[in-house]
Amino acid sequence: MVIAKHGLILGATALLLTGVTVIGAGIHLSSQASLSNNAPKELIDQVWQIIDKTYVDGTFNQVDWKATRSEYLDKTYTSDEQAYDAIREMLERLGDPYTRFMNPEEFKNMQIDTSGELTGVGIQLTQDQDTKKLVVISPIEDTPAFDAGIQAKDIITKIDGQSTQGMNINDAVSLIRGPIGIQVILTIKRENQEIEFPIIRAKIEIHPVKYSQKESSLDKVGYIRLNQFSANAAREMQEAIDDLETQNVSGYILDLRSNPGGLLYASIEIARMWLDGGDIVSTVNRNGVTDRQKANNSSLTDKPLVVMVNGGSASASEILSGALQDNKRAILVGTKTFGKGLVQSVRGVGKNAGIAVTIAKYFTPNGRDINHEGIIPDVTISLTDLQKETLRQNRDKIGTIEDPQYAKALDILTKEIAAVQNNQAQFAN
User: What residues have CB less than 8 Å from 213, skipping those under 6 apart?
Assistant: First the structure.
């Protein structure tokens, strides 16, 4: 069967109409022809075959995968819904929350953010592989979830009073999804506290890149905040760098804090804007086959660069920051990133249903496995809960000297600019 490749998505994967983003770290979107007659058993076998051929773990979580096929094909199914339940039950044996089946409605709601708009509350959601708890990667800035005070690493324990214990991501998304203007109450566990957040669903506009010229003690610097690796992120990043270059800035601060990821090609294109040479990222499947992406001598600037990251920086953000760190192109400031290094393939099956399958891991240029480990910044500086809340309530302070992580990044960048200027002066003499 011919599979047409459309692209890779990391971290923010696809934007659901709920405004909840399911984090599988990386998704490879594919198309697939329909079944000949869409019989329930054929759908089950189609899903089984996809897992058998592509799943990243060749042991299938120590499950006898061939016996599993016989077990489920020996049963009788009288409806598509029965087949859907059987497929979900079958996939649970893999112990991988990112390998999941989506019915037609759920699959329809998974779509790439090309318009820059989505409807919902504006959070990125994942499921902890060990505890199965629903964990917030990060709220999207300027969304109802962000305004309400939802934070990275929050655990969603209830949705409108319904416990999320044992709930999968698709079920959680269905409960959080709803019409614009209607409230949903998320109960959050944060450390030892349980807090209720009433949130009004809304239409959310996402502009991935915001930038401005800032002043340092030495010279002008460019500040670029990238919120998401969406389809237009690379174009907006290029426009930002080009504009700041015309303003003769002497260095850059790239803010990737709370950026949950997005399109793989966007992270690669943006990395190439900062790197003239070197590897960017490699992906390795279960057979050890490696695909490596490299810089291509197309950088837009070689001026000093400091990158800001935190626990909400995931997947595509980790690819970019890891590439810049390993190639010694930038100094990383902040806290350890989230740690998502799995690539998924998403494709249509049956009658407009879909399946996401973990097919590979990705690594930084130096071979670091990002999954679970994350990227460790060169300079660690944390924010207190009070500082986080102050910045949340006063977003105009983000990227100013009243933002402690930015202030540290600016101090480091100023020293880097001074070193460059001293070298240039010595060369001129």
Answer: 220, 221, 222, 223, 244, 247, 249
